[in-house]
Design brief:
Number of helices: 12
CATH superfamily of the largest domain: Response regulator
Order of helices and strands: EEHEHEEHEHEHEEHHEEEHHHHH
Pfam families: GerE, Response_reg
GO molecular function: phosphorelay response regulator activity; transcription cis-regulatory region binding
Protein name: LuxR family transcriptional regulator
Oligomer: single chain
CATH class of the largest domain: Alpha Beta
Structural class: alpha/beta
Keywords: DNA-binding, Phosphoprotein, Transcription, Transcription regulation, Two-component regulatory system
InterPro entries: CheY-like_superfamily, Sig_transdc_resp-reg_C-effctor, Sig_transdc_resp-reg_receiver, Tscrpt_reg_LuxR_C, WalR-like, WH-like_DNA-bd_sf
Length: about 300
């Protein structure tokens, strides 16, 4: 999917009425936006596969699939779900707008179209969308493990570091990882007990740091979204030394050094820099470590360190 650069952003207008298309296109072009046009939902969805708009103005009543179904399909696709959608509708259709919000639309514009209102709403929602993308990008590129869940323990969103934390925790527990769906069983059980103990104010409450297993801890932080809970996942910084790992696990000193840094979350490249050796040499030592410990993955090796430590 191609990203399009523009001074103010790219707006896709989806409407089968020529007069509305002309008015909106002229208004947005004069305001510095790049304008894309589609006359029905199917062509809009197809067009977005090639050019990704920053925001979509979507008519409710159209031939073929209507605006509701178009919005539903866009929100079901991870590649297009983040794009803000604003419905355009006549006054007689306002009762259907609740359905539109349920499909994932952010706002609506009442026809007949008033250019100043359209520009104001677009500016507000584009600003919010860009701020959200900046925040998500910051989380994605930093080692910040956070996961938001609903009261059932279903995952609403999570950072890449949280996905890795949950996968490692699941492997330690000997259960299949479901990091993109629901919490692992042990974590789910703890979370449900915490909910019951917190009572009605759970959505505003915060927990102390809780140690789930050696090396894995978390706490619950207040979440701004109603009926959602933010879990901040932590890896405990165990104070292993190469000497203790060498003696407990019957490794060479260099193998113990490498395992210590792996247990602290370092990559082969980072370990190579720390120990002034190449990542390939680190990987070779890692193969010997796996063989001696009787494991086949880094997570399993770390789990053994945690259990023995």
């Amino acid at each position: 999917m191609m990203e399009v650069s523009a001074s103010n952003g790219t707006v896709l207008i989806v409407d089968d009425t020529p007069g509305n298309l002309a008015l909106l296109s002229d208004t947005l072009s004069e305001a510095g936006y790049r304008v894309l046009v589609a006359t029905d939902g199917c062509s809009a969805i197809e067009q977005i596969q090639y050019v990704k708009p920053d925001i979509i103005l979507l008519d409710v009543m159209m031939p073929g699939i209507d605006g509701f179904e178009t919005c539903s399909r866009l929100k079901a696709d991870p590649a297009t779900a983040p794009i803000p959608v604003l419905f355009m509708t006549g006054l007689s259709e306002l009762d259907d707008l609740l359905r539109g919000f349920g499909e994932g639309a952010l706002d609506y514009i009442v026809k007949p179209i008033r250019p100043a209102e359209v520009l104001a709403r677009i500016e507000v929602h584009l600003t919010q969308s860009r701020n959200l993308r900046r925040a998500e990008s910051l989380l994605d590129h930093h080692e910040f493990a956070a996961v938001a869940v609903d009261a059932a323990g279903d995952i609403v969103w999570l950072t890449p570091a949280a996905r890795e934390w949950l996968a490692d925790f699941s492997e330690l527990q000997g259960t299949a990882s479901s990091a993109d769906d629901v919490l692992p069983e042990t974590l789910q059980g703890w979370f449900q007990r915490w909910l019951r103990q917190s009572g009605r104010n759970a959505s505003e409450a915060e927990s102390d740091v809780h140690r789930l297993a050696p090396g894995f801890a978390l706490r619950v932080s207040a979440c701004q979204n109603p009926d959602e809970y933010l879990l901040l996942l932590q890896r405990e910084d165990a104070q292993w030394t190469p000497e203790t790992l060498r003696d407990k696990l019957k490794l060479t000193f260099r193998e113990a050094e490498i395992l210590m840094w792996i247990a602290r979350g370092k990559t082969n490249k980072e370990i190579g820099i720390i120990l002034t050796t190449s990542p390939r040499t680190v990987n070779k030592h890692l193969e010997h470590i796996f063989e001696k410990l009787g494991v086949s993955t880094r997570a399993a090796a770390v789990a053994m360190v945690l259990q023995r430590g």
